């Protein structure tokens, strides 16, 4: 098929009953589309442990419905893991360890050939410690294995009429809290609500990071005009949750 490279189709010939660590992002949704087109017996697994937003959960449910897969939801409490709450340098590794182990435990009894995820050939393992655990655990990353980069996946997704082909990449809520600052439910909820409100103004690809009680709103250079047009509204929104605000340029992908 034009939207499915031959080596990716071959991957599923060799792995006919996978489970998918499904995030609802562009990469894992493209894999879901491929599985539907190839009639692969796949189970999508979505982890609802604390760092995922309500919007991400709703999006994941809608996509599973669109492509006619029945999702398996892993309900967990990531903040019950002391190493995660401490938010040290290895927090991403410890978080991925908890998530992937819980996902596999939930679906391995259904005769799954492997657990796969949406890591692609553009993802840099040097700034994503969680990718180290994926390799240790044996998670398969077909997009990466087949040499598909993020631009490749967006191009193929657009050609396949996948509705979120151009959705901005997003990272988990914990990345908004500085390393070394313990994670709390209050800070995570505050971050989710603040970002949701700012995005409703049209600034989609943003981050609201925290430094104590100060919000750091990161935007892309391409959003400069939109930021200026909405600065008063943004200030009103963020001051509901934080004592002060500053602005910074965001690096794509972080």
Task: Compose a concise summary of this entry.
This protein has 254 residues and is α/β, with parallel strands linked by helices.
Describe the fold and architecture.
With 254 residues, this protein is an alpha/beta fold. Helices cover 42% and strands 13% of the residues. Strands 3-2-1-4 form a four-stranded parallel beta sheet, with helices on both faces. It has a three-stranded mixed beta sheet with strand order 5-6-7, covered by helices on one side. Strand 5 and strand 6 form a beta hairpin. Helix 5 packs parallel to helix 6. The radius of gyration is 19 Å and the shape is globular. The two termini are 33 Å apart.
Count of DSSP-assigned helices: 11
What is the residue-averaged pLDDT?
A: 93
Instruction: State the shape.
Output: globular
Q: Please give the alpha-carbon distance between the first and last residues.
A: 33 Å
Task: Write the element-wise H/E pattern from the N-terminal end onward.
Answer: HEHEHEHHEHHHHEEHHE
């Amino acid at each position: 098929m034009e939207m499915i490279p031959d080596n990716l189709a071959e991957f599923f010939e060799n792995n006919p009953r996978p489970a998918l660590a499904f995030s609802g992002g562009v990469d894992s949704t493209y894999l879901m589309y491929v599985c539907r087109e190839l009639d692969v017996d796949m189970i999508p697994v979505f982890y609802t442990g604390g760092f995922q937003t309500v919007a991400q959960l709703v999006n994941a449910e809608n996509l599973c419905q669109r492509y006619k897969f029945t999702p398996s939801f892993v309900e967990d409490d990531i903040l019950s893991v002391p190493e995660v709450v401490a938010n040290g340098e290895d927090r991403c590794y410890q978080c991925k360890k908890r998530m992937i182990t819980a996902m596999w435990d939930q679906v391995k009894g259904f005769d799954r050939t492997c657990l796969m995820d949406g890591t692609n050939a553009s993802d840099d393992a040097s700034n994503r410690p969680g990718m180290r655990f994926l390799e240790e655990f044996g998670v398969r990353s077909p997009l990466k294995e087949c040499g598909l980069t993020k631009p490749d996946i967006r191009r193929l997704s657009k050609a396949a009429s996948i509705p979120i082909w151009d959705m901005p990449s997003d990272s988990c809520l914990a990345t908004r809290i500085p390393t070394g600052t313990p994670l709390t439910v209050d800070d995570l909820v505050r971050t989710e609500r603040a970002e949701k409100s700012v995005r409703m103004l049209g600034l989609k690809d943003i981050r609201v990071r925290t430094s104590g009680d100060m919000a750091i709103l990161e935007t892309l250079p391409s959003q400069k005009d939109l930021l200026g047009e909405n600065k008063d509204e943004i200030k009103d929104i963020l001051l509901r949750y934080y004592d002060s605000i500053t602005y910074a340029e965001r690096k794509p992908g972080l």
